[in-house]
Amino acid sequence: MTASPTEDELQAGFDATIGRNDRIEPRDWMPEGYRKTLVRQIAQHAHSEIIGMQPEGNWITRAPSLRRKAVLLAKVQDEAGHGLYLYSACETLGTSRGELTEKLIAGAQKYSSIFNYPTLSFADVGTIGWLVDGAAICNQVPLCRTSFGPYGRAMIRICKEESFHQRQGYELLMTMMRGTDAQRAMVQESVDRFWWPALMMFGPPDADSPNTAQSMAWGIKRNTNDDLRQRFVDMTVPQADALGVTLPDPDLRWNEERGAHDFGQPDWDEFLQVVKGNGPCNAQRLAHRRRAHEDGAWVREAAMAFARKSREQEASA
Amino acid sequence: MNEFHQTPSHSAPDPSHEDGSVYDGLLGTDSSQWAFGTDFEDPLAGVDTTVPDGVDHRMLAAYCLALADDALVFSHRLSEWCSNAPDLEEDIALANIALDLLGQARLLLARAAAADPDVVPVLPEGSPVPAEDALAFFREADEFRNVRFVEVPNGDFAHTVARVLLFATARLAVLDRLTGSRDAVLAAVAAKGVKELTYHRDYAGRWFLTLARGTEESRRRLVAALDQLWPLYPEMLATHPVEAAAAEAGVGVDPATVAAETDVVLEQVLAMSGVDRPQRASLAGVDGRTGRDGLHTEALSRMLAEMQVVARAHPMGQW
């Protein structure tokens, strides 16, 4: 019989796996802090998908063409699917969807702040696809290589679908820009409203991001907030140009020397307020989720009771 | 154009690769890289839309509108569940059913418009709104031909389970027969719909049994929901003159002719679930007119007010 490895040996094995850029799998030993960080991050991501159904779901019943209605309904349905994969990935770390949902509706776990902004016109459906899904993908593409196996694999699937959504959003805006003056104005107003919140999606500036260093050392996070934000701006500017909209930042310009765009800073005070729960829709989004969850309790109980009775019947048969 | 245009590389995105940018190709013109539904195509493109010999094209269009509106209105009600279902799996399943019915509605509306362009509301000259959208978004409530069963507001999950079960069972029987339609388009729409509705019926049937045999509360809610829907149900299987004419011409199905087989299926589900058939009279019409005649409940115009609001604000808009 071999002696069971000591904590130090386990830690050394874990560090070596991370060092080789290999995946950690659910049955592998992992430091408690790593597990906790992952649960926090994956749960937050899952919750974001589920809460994210609301702002766009807001326009399903008012979509102005049957084709757009189908595309939007399918997209919001995909978000529910993403939530499912991510909750499953999280369950491999020893928690459950039910437990995580309780934490979400109790306000004990967070979701992406962008969903605390309202959707005020149908153009927002396109803008969310283009800018919000676009920023989300910038954040998420590096996560396909994250060190925890189930998370990385879920992210590969999610990123593929998100890039469809992003194209659909951009294409909606393109179509609207070819339409009437009123439609073009609607697109511009929507872009003006979502540009800064989209930039906030990368998180606070690196100097103010306390968790980044440890997450990068563990291979959970692969790029800093500011790196990703820069990349997003550089990629978005030519698209805005092709679309024919202006981005609402007077400081935005190409910097030849850096080979990148200079741009202004979002209102970080507003960001903090939204993170603290004081955003335009925080209370509304949570109340909606809580109501749906509570309204469905009797259905979930019925399904469990039915399954139990069926098992008992089988056993006595 | 300017220095900004140096970024895109027009290669397919590879999200598993750090350098694979999701934006790659976004400005490209390769349409194969675009998602489903982002190109507008005539839903009947490539299908022979000639009205069969001896068939009155007005009657055919009216019949298609009835079938289309049932699907369109019920799809809308089901889509209201989005982000409100008891669990993620149910959210996804109800959205699936809504999407299937929306797909059926689009084909049938397009068929109605192709058979008789006069049914399509007239929009300002030069409007880019396609016929299916003109029909969905620019008709008044009294021009809708759906049965009242599909338009009443959603209740709880039991109400939706019972409604999907009754709707899918009846429509499946109708479409199953419609696969033999002399109209090639209707036959094709029916063949596709049969597969979809079989799934809808099975899904609702499983939940019907689960709720009936689950807890006291779920059973109470299910029985109440069935009771509430029952008076509306006969309208779905009654013969309207348009359906009679369509059946006579060999292009449509008289729902009364599938009432018996629909009932057999329903009886099986009720028996297995131990739920009694409600003893409720059918909902009267007004001066004999009901949903198929354009006589609706108060709920429809309110539903349409929401559904049509953006489209109507932009009759020259393109989406």
UniProtKB/TrEMBL annotation, chain A:
GO terms for biological process: phenylacetate catabolic process. GO terms for molecular function: phenylacetyl-CoA 1,2-epoxidase activity. It holds the Pfam family PaaA_PaaC. InterPro entries: Aromatic_CoA_ox/epox (IPR052703), Ferritin-like (IPR012347), Ferritin-like_SF (IPR009078), PaaA (IPR011881), PaaA_PaaC (IPR007814). It comes from the Bacteria. One of its GO terms (cellular component) is cytosol. Gene3D superfamilies: 1.20.1260.10. This is 1,2-phenylacetyl-CoA epoxidase subunit A. It comes from Nocardioides guangzhouensis.
Automatic annotation (TrEMBL), chain B:
One of its GO terms (biological process) is phenylacetate catabolic process. Gene3D superfamilies: 1.20.1260.10. One of its GO terms (cellular component) is cytosol. Residues 1-10 have a biased composition (Polar residues). Residues 1-24 are annotated as: Disordered. It comes from the Bacteria. It holds the Pfam family PaaA_PaaC. SUPFAM superfamilies: Ferritin-like. NCBIfam families: PA_CoA_Oxy3 (TIGR02158). This is Phenylacetate-CoA oxygenase subunit PaaI. It comes from Nocardioides guangzhouensis. The gene is paaI.
